[in-house]
TrEMBL record:
Coiled coil: none annotated. The keyword Electron transport applies. Residues 41-118 form the Cytochrome c domain. It comes from the Bacteria. Gene3D superfamilies: Cytochrome c-like domain (1.10.760.10). The lineage of its organism: Bacteria, Bacillati, Bacillota, Bacilli, Bacillales. The keyword Iron applies. This is Cytochrome c. It comes from Paenibacillus terricola. Keywords: Electron transport, Heme, Iron, Metal-binding, Signal, Transport. InterPro entries: Cyt_c-like_dom, Cyt_c-like_dom_sf, Cyt_C_IC, Cytochrome_c550/c551-like. Residues 1-28 form the signal peptide. Pfam families: Cytochrome_CBB3.
Length: 118
């Protein structure tokens, strides 16, 4: 009977260890120092628009997902508010135009907020 319990335990212990290891791996990213969308500062409306329309290409921390040009962490030091609004409206390179997807007021809110990212 002891052998049966040992065999049963040897089958369950690795699964428990595997589950614990996977949980630790999943939690490892939670302590990251990067700027997440929850910690972005500024207009709540602009951040909500960013999360709804921009995060898929520009990442939750503004670092970009589709190359260095999609990094918005310091976009305000590279572009004026007007240039940012024009880019959002008309698109460019691989960025799609958002003129038909966002109102002029929403584009202005995003451009104003992004111009402060320095």
């Amino acid at each position: 009977m002891t052998k049966i319990r040992s065999t049963a335990m040897s089958r369950t212990v690795p699964w428990k260890l595997l589950a614990a290891a996977l949980a630790l791996i999943a939690l490892a990213g939670c302590g990251s120092q990067s700027k997440s969308s929850a910690s972005l500062e500024g207009s709540k409306e602009a951040i909500a628009l960013y999360n709804a329309r921009c995060i898929s290409c520009h990442a939750s921390d503004l670092s970009g997902k589709v190359g260095p040009d999609s990094d918005l962490r310091t976009v305000g030091s590279r572009m004026t508010k007007e240039a940012i609004a024009k880019q959002i409206t008309n698109g460019g390179d691989i960025m799609p135009a958002f003129a038909s997807k966002l109102s002029a007021d929403d584009i202005d809110k995003l451009a104003d907020w992004l111009s402060k990212q320095q």
